[in-house]
Design goal:
71% helix; mainly alpha; 13 helices; 366 residues
């Protein structure tokens, strides 16, 4: 029982550090354009994230049952495995947060899960669902496993964010060529309130659900192992029965609310470092640029969330800002900052997998 509560606590700690990164990314542009103060943007992000987290649970279901084969993980080791995966992700979040680098909390979590699962299964790589092919005649995005839900979306989503932002910004440059700069800034300052809310909502539909999946996975494992058999009545809500084959896992409302509020708290207390990198250091932003970047990023996030793909808000909004900057002019981007961000992206999955693998080995040793 103590291990299950430890998983929930560490999962919420991860969600809190995720707030440093990903929710900060979601509101960075509206702060960078000075349309809202950081405090106002955080309030907006809190409300819209909470609303987004309540819509659907496709991403949570992917994390809970679509990446790791729980049948190959010893039932009594599921909770320690998840704790090691979360600690690996949290460690990477804190390191990259300290240096102000918008790395992916999503991929940190997936990398941690992969490394921990392989180690928990005593080196059996089949513990990770690498490929689950789509049904015959179905589109590729209906497939499952790491390939279809993580790797392909990891490549495609930032490219889409870049292209949508680039072409949207190009269209706006042409459409607003005769408009007065003062009018453009004033009007798009108002429109950016809408695009920021859209970004926060889309972020909630994707990122806030990842830890929900971890908590649900821990509760399902504990229920299967009989950990909750002697629970008092007031704790009966913790029991989470594994769904029958072909049926989706239901994510309880209390898990959704708890994760969304925890992420908002993390943003409120630690998000400024990332906001400064994306909102100020990457490219100089005006309200019209912020509107284009947020609209592009939010559209990609919402679409992937509906398909159950745990993509990176960090990658999507950063590439969208790059697309806006490139449409402005090639030299508008500060390329040394871009290079540091890309290196953080490349390193996230393997580093967190290695850390989680090592942690599980240490736990097994003792």
């Amino acid at each position: 029982m103590l291990l299950v509560f430890t998983v929930i606590f560490v999962a919420l700690l991860f969600t809190y550090t995720n707030g440093f990164h990903d929710t900060a990314n979601a509101i960075a542009t509206v702060v960078g354009t000075k349309v809202l103060t950081p405090r106002q943007a955080i309030i907006l992000a809190t409300i819209t994230n909470l609303l987004g987290a309540m819509i659907g649970a496709a991403v949570a279901k992917t994390i809970a049952s679509g990446l790791v084969d729980s049948n190959l993980i010893p039932a009594d080791f599921a909770s320690p495995m998840l704790i090691c995966a979360l600690i690996a992700a949290i460690s990477w979040n804190l390191v990259t947060w300290y240096f102000g680098m918008p790395s992916s909390s999503s991929h940190a979590l997936v990398g941690g899960l992969v490394g921990a699962a392989i180690a928990a299964a005593h080196g059996n790589w089949s513990a990770v669902i690498w490929v689950k092919a789509p049904a015959v005649g179905a589109h590729w995005w209906t497939g499952g496993g790491i390939l279809y839900k993580v790797v392909i979306p990891m490549i495609i989503s930032p490219v889409l964010g870049f292209l949508i932002a680039f072409f949207l910004m190009g269209f706006l440059y042409v459409a607003l060529k005769q408009a007065r700069p003062v009018s453009v800034s004033r009007n798009f300052g108002k429109l950016q309130l809408v695009s920021s809310a859209y970004m926060g909502f889309s972020h909630g539909t994707n990122d806030a659900q990842k830890t929900m999946g971890i908590i649900a996975l821990a509760l399902v494992a504990a229920t299967k192992a009989g950990t909750f058999d002697q629970l008092p009545g007031w704790l009966a809500f913790l029991k989470t029965v594994e769904p029958s084959p072909g049926n989706p896992l239901v994510i309880a409302l209390w898990i959704k609310v708890l994760c969304a509020l925890t992420m908002a708290a993390g943003t409120a207390l630690g998000g400024w470092r990332i906001i400064r990198t994306l909102g100020h250091k990457l490219v100089k932003l005006q309200p019209v640029h912020g509107f284009a970047a947020e609209t592009a990023g939010a559209t990609v996030l919402l679409g992937t969330a509906m398909m159950g793909m745990p993509v990176s808000t960090t990658h999507v909004i950063t590439s969208s800002i790059m697309g806006v900057g490139t449409a402005k002019r090639w030299g508008a981007l500060k390329w040394p900052v871009v290079e540091r961000i890309i290196w953080a992206w490349i390193m996230t999955l393997p580093v967190t997998a290695i850390i989680a693998y090592a942690l599980v080995i240490v736990v097994q040793w003792f």
